[in-house]
Amino acid sequence: MGEHIPLQRNSAKACRICFDTDNPNDLISPCLCKGGSAYVHRKCLDDWRSVNKNGRAFNFCDVCQFEYVIEPVVDNPSSDKHRLLVFRLLVTRDMTLIVLLFRLIIVATTFLLQAVDKKSNTIKDLYPNSMSSFGIYYLSSLILFFAFLGFLGLIGFCCGWMNDNHNTNRSNDTCPNCACYPYNCICLDCHGCDGPNNCGGGGGDG
């Protein structure tokens, strides 16, 4: 009659990321996972949270979806207050410099418009006679400045939209070199696209 020998459970804790049992004092259980997935090194978890592309994994466990309890540790409260004060001063300095730069550009444009329009008075005639000469050209400079900013924003929006559309087309594995749009297909080397917007079964210009 065989004797029943109970299996001895291995009590050694191992990190679920690096599978190492070193530094047991640095192992933590940050979520509700059990068994071999219960423990992880602090550094391993920090590295995983920092490089993981999924934004949810920064605050939540990938397995049990438990939200990590993160408590900031401040060794020196006075030093932390000093860093916060320096950060606010730097932000204030940068914002002040940006505002001053914009004002300088607007004022320079004002004098430029005033010099260009000195003989013809084309810009000056667009405004009421009650307005001062400097006010007319300053207002015109403001209009040009914000119109230029809007134009740059429109270009950035269009470039971002075209880049997203281009990446979407390139992600098509069936036709990686074919840019297909509604009712049109521009083919570089399609090798036979399938679907309603196809290139006629071969490469070439669509």
From TrEMBL:
Keyword Secreted (UniProt): no
InterPro entries: Znf_RING-CH (IPR011016), Znf_RING/FYVE/PHD (IPR013083)
Highest taxon of the lineage: Eukaryota
SMART domains reported for this sequence: RINGv (SM00744)
CDD domains linked: RING_CH-C4HC3_MARCH
Keywords: Membrane, Metal-binding, Transmembrane, Transmembrane helix, Zinc, Zinc-finger
A molecular function GO annotation: zinc ion binding
Bilayer-crossing regions: 97-116, 136-162
Protein name, per record: RING-CH-type domain-containing protein
Species of origin: Rotaria magnacalcarata
